[in-house]
Amino acid sequence: MPLSEFRKKKLLYVFNTFFDFNQSGAIDRKDLDLAIQRINENRGWSADNPKAQSIRDTLLKMWDNLRQGADTDQDGQVSRDEWFQLWEEYAKNPSNASEWQQDYMSVTFQLFDASGDKSIDENEFCNVCRYHGVAEAEAREAFKKLGVGQEITWDKFTNLWKQYFSSDEPTAAGNFIFGKTSF
Ligand SMILES: [Ca+2]
Ligand SMILES: [Ca+2]
Predict the structure, then answer these.
(1) Which stretches make up the EF-hand domain (predicted)?
(2) In sequence order, what are the residues at sequence separation of 6 or more whose Cβ sits closer than 8 angstroms to the Cβ of residue 48?
(3) For 74-82, which contacts have Cβ atoms below 8 Å and span 24 or more sequence positions?
(4) Dist CA 29 CA 176 (whole Å)
């Protein structure tokens, strides 16, 4: 089954908001450096903070794996079409995610979970969404639509995350995991 327009919109939202930071239309090393800079700003970390270094190492490894798995034409960047192909492959069997996808899911959880207690509460969720340009009211609405109660545990998160990247169902709770309520 080809990628639906709905899923393409969700994929483009993540591509534009969380990966292609310099809006060049592709993901490359420059975006990664910007991402690291933004995380440090958001958390108030200096570049030599051990947590900053740990996230930096994780993201660098993720970038290498993403490039290996998705940069089909090997031009050093991941285009939108290459991004779509990556997730089209994923959706065929979400329980068999690549190492990159598993790392990405776990890093996303860590970014939301600012306090590091393995649970994301509404304020943590809204803070990260707001930082990426989602209005606070929309992020709070999205949190409600996730249907998780007070907090997103790792188990709930993994289910919602899978839905975001594989579901064609417009009312699936997982569609709201990045704070957007419509696409
Ligand atoms: Ca870019
Ligand atoms: Ca490429």
Answers:
(1) 100-135
(2) none
(3) 76/28, 76/29, 77/24, 77/26, 77/27, 77/28, 78/19, 78/26, 78/27, 78/28, 79/25, 79/26, 80/12, 80/15, 80/25, 80/26
(4) 28
CATH entry 3.30.70.20 includes domain 5-176: no
Lowest-confidence pick of 52-66, 115-129, 156-170: 52-66
- Determine contact, residues 171/145, Cβ cutoff 8 Å: no
Q: Rounded to an integer, what distance in angstroms lies between the CA atom of residue 140 and that of residue 125? A: 8
Helix H or strand E segment including 119: strand 119-121
Ligand 2 midpoint to CA 28 (Å): 9
- Model confidence at 1, in pLDDT bands (50, 70, 90)? low
Q: What is the pTM of this model?
A: 0.90
Among all bound ligands, the one having the nearest atom to the CA of 76 is 2
| Closest of 35, 6, 23, 27 to residue 165, by C-alpha | 6
87 alpha carbon to ligand 2 midpoint, in Å?
Answer: 15
Phi, psi of 3 (to 5 degrees): -65, 125
